[in-house]
Amino acid sequence: MWSTSCLRVVIQTDYSVVDKMQTKAGIIWTLALWNYLAHLLAFVQTTNYQQPAPEDMLYPTDAVQRYVHTEPGSYFGYSVACYVGQSQSFCLVGSPRAKSDALGDQSGPTSSHSNPHTGLVYRIDLDPNLPYCSVVPIATTDEMRQEAGTPYPGFSSWLGGTVAAASNSLDGIQLGCDPRYIYAPEPINRTASGDLGPSQPRTYLGTGQCALYTGASLQYTSVDACYSQEEGACLAGFSADVEPGNQLGEALVALGMPGSYLTEGNVFLGHYRGRELINAMRLKSSPQDLKHMGFNLGYAVSLVKLVRDTDSRTSHKFQDDASGKTNNFRGTSENWGLLASSSMWIDNEYRGIVMLIDQTMELGGITYLKDQWGHIGSFFGYSLATADLDGNGMLDIIVGAPYFTGQKGEEKPTDQNVQVLLKSTKSNRVRDTLTESIPLHTDSQLTGEQPSLDVKWGRLAPDVGRVYVFYGYPSSSVTNSHLLNRDQIRPDYLSRPPIVLSGLKMIGGRFGHSLVNLGDVDGDGTEDLAISCPYCSDADRGHDKGAVLIYLGREDAVLEDSPFQIIWPGDIPRVSPITNCGDFGSESFTVRPFKSFGWSLSAGTDLDGNHAPDLVIGDFDSDQIVLMRARNTLWFDSPEWDLPMTRTLPWSGPDETPCGSECRFHVRLSVAVHGNRALLQQHHHRQLPHAQSFKLHVIIDLDASMENLVFKRLSGRELTNSSHPGLPVNGIMHTVVPVTLTPNELGNIGRLTLLSLALEPQSARVRSFLWKPILINASLLPVSDTMPHLSGSKSVASWMLHPFLGKRYFLSRPLQFANPACGPDNICRADLRVRMMDISDGPTDNLVVYFRERITQRNLTVGIGNLGENAYAAQLRMTIPHHFSFTLPGDLSCQSRLLPTIQATQILCDLGDPLGHTGSDLRPFVFHLNTAGAFRELDVPLHDQPESTGSGNSSDPQMTDRVQQSVVSKRFERELFGLHTQAGQKSVHRDSVIITAEVISGNEDEDLRDNVASITYNLQLTSKIELSSSSLDRTTIDSRNFTVQLYEMQRVHPETLGPEIKHIYLISNNGPSPIEDLWVNISMPMQTEDGEHLVYFLDRVRHQVEDGAQPLMVNKAPEVSIDECEYRNVTTQRLNIKTD
């Protein structure tokens, strides 16, 4: 420690005589304060994603069905679309590089363009018992096009580049497109005479072409969206979507044409009934519409109804139509809307946009969602999806930007101007959203530094990808929806910034390449989302590339930033495919690694009949697709306990003899069951096959407050089987419960009886822990059952049942045994209280710790009292920061353990068993604290796990059963200090240290308000500097007293020129804190304005400490500053003297 010191500055000066003058010295001092408090590292909880356990996965990898193409390089899986037709499940798979076996007559004008790789569209029957892969008969030759009514002559080169499908009661709506279809419009190829000569070369245009099956005819309808010469190479079908109408064979088709009008783009919307085109519209009817506004309009399209009818919302449970696909738009009118994207829009600084377009295609009615958070080339709008993720009945718009480039090591945007804090109602974690454009080089702009080009480019993380979720909120029109047709209502997407999902943040991974609405896969009433990252990889899972991330919607809440599940291809079993496409005579197959897993996605349809929407994932690089079969979900809540209504439970007969069956009581527990309503009704009305039955493993802890099985005080038997009641079981019971639902008072399926028990107290054990309440805990575990369609009939946990999306355990209210030592009601209720006070003698301020003060010993008194009845297993818990060392009171038995998360030590002291009534008097316990380390920098890691330093004996019931000390310790650590896993609050702040004390009782405490006390020590650096001088107030020098005449080149000693003047300044610090650096500034006249010297320094500055040590000599001459001021023709210069 530093002692209070005095600094003595001795300045010896001589003045030559000029005139009688008055010299006045002004002292200006400046203290450079040391940074007295070391920087404390803030605790940050880093949330690393953890894959759920296999029994918790919504898409178990063991249930995968694989389909492959026999010809490598066919791009099988480039596009996928699943649907249900006539109660059968199918999947369309695009294979744009597959070879066509029917080239037809390629002579004549098309011979120069003959190419066997025309592309094909396959239709796979997903029945696992009779799988079959067939080619959809779409024309690939002029002869076939002529028969089908397709414009010709033409040339197919990318058939299957886009597929779309929708379910209906017929064969489903099926659409296959060739966006690179080339044909020669007749007017372009005519000669000057009006005839097309045989030798005249044709001019081919990449117009694109699609084929539509509506289910009303065996022949497809040609969708010719691009027929105008002025539109040019439209690339029609580059993106596509279909939806069924209200009548059989009715379909609505949307096509994106990003090549129209010299790549400015266009959108086509057609209404078909059977093979008849009812109506067709384009967003741009002429080249002047939206001219020079942007490029590639129609890069992605999606048919939407932004507001759903109340009776069709997913929050009213999962409903299936006759086809097996979830359909939330039945019964509504046909006024659909359209989403279309442009990856480069001029008015948006060449960044992407998404248009919300009415079915009328009016240019004035377009709403623009603009990319204000990415950069040019991020391809905002590359992929689109819609889903009701928050259950408010309004579709939310999800936009992918797979080519977004970030910075290496940049987790979140750091600019304070671009962060808005939102909090999920189901999560305490604060979420980031964006409100402004984020510069790519955020760090350099914040620091003001301009790194070199090599540094800038070296920090880029290209193509990591990003996904934006625009939530739909009620607008004024929605508020007044009773005045409008529901189809005319448009939600508000612009008033709030989108939620940003960053995915895995892998360079080149392209997160957001494909998006799909999963439907309500977890059965909570909100739709869910799947996002692909086709080039992400995990070194721990082999060389497979790609991943699909599952995000679960939450009612009235935003998506969690971390996905619920990540589907890695490396986890998929390497088994033979269900069936092959391509060369149907080939049976050989070699397991191929995945190279772009997640390139295409299709979901939202129950394909295997278990009432859960499944997911199909395509990988064109390895020519295969996989069907991920979703698990159905149930969850349980709203427990209802049927417990004894008496105040206390009897536990013994007269003279504490065992009472046996006379003390027996009954307990019953029922819970509410939630999940897919159709599945629950099916199970209620008829018994499902054994492989699909619902079973629960229920673990019943009859005395959860006692950790040791030896001391549990209840035994019981089940009452569900009255004919075979079984033997009593002590402590913990296990049972398997079939999920048999019973109608509630309203006649709806709703509740399940989990347990019905007859319980008896064990008198000998109750006597030792009479005061401790009884808590009954029922925990749920899945029962392993055979999963359908797995090789070897593999058993997994609960194929049809997924209970852990709800509560895992149910705890009863406390039950109390009668205690004769506790007054007329036989229940002891304590009323503990605690006070804290610093009674130290000597410190300047007992509640202030000064930097390096002399007195470092503090006496902290903790007073404890009990105004109620006996307090059993009473304990004192104190938390003392690591900055203070301490000594425990001698009359307390304590244990301690480290709490690194808050940089403190927790002390647990026994107060007696029981602690009786103390009245208003408090029992004092004095803790001796040493504050010498209050300002030191802690070296205890913040992220280490707490380690117990106690030496408790597990065989001692008094030590073992402290109301589950580990649980209470965690509660104390988190709740007492307001700690949460996302928070990271500390008991040490930059200017204070907090010590906290809590008293707890094993039995009930009537008033918890006085159970916690704290004392705060403020940390300060305070010094009191005093300056005094022993020099004369006035010194007069008379030149008449000197007769020495100097001549040129004469050598003169300065002390012979005039009298010696000595100034001594006394600088003292009365503390309590020392100082590191002290500057003394002395101003004095040195010479006249004519340059004549007044003062010469004869001696060095000396520094002498108060304790009488040798003076410290300053080894250099004082610094002299020029031109400070003028006084009576005398220049005053400042002398800066630094003392250490």
TrEMBL record:
Mind listing the GO molecular function terms for this protein? integrin binding
Q: Which GO terms describe its biological process?
A: cell adhesion mediated by integrin; cell-cell adhesion; cell-matrix adhesion; integrin-mediated signaling pathway
Which keywords fit this entry according to its UniProt record?
Answer: Cell adhesion, Glycoprotein, Integrin, Membrane, Receptor, Repeat, Signal, Transmembrane, Transmembrane helix
Q: Where is the composition biased (Polar residues)?
A: 947-964
TM segment ranges: none
Q: Which residue intervals make up region (Disordered)?
A: 942-964
* Residue ranges occupied by any Integrin alpha third immunoglobulin-like domain in the UniProt entry: 1055-1105
Residue windows of the FG-GAP repeats: 366-432, 498-560
Q: Which residues form the Integrin alpha second immunoglobulin-like domain?
A: 822-917
Give the family per the record.
Belongs to the integrin alpha chain family.
What name does this protein carry?
A: Integrin alpha-5
- This protein's species is Paragonimus heterotremus
Q: What is the lineage of its organism?
A: Eukaryota, Metazoa, Spiralia, Lophotrochozoa, Platyhelminthes
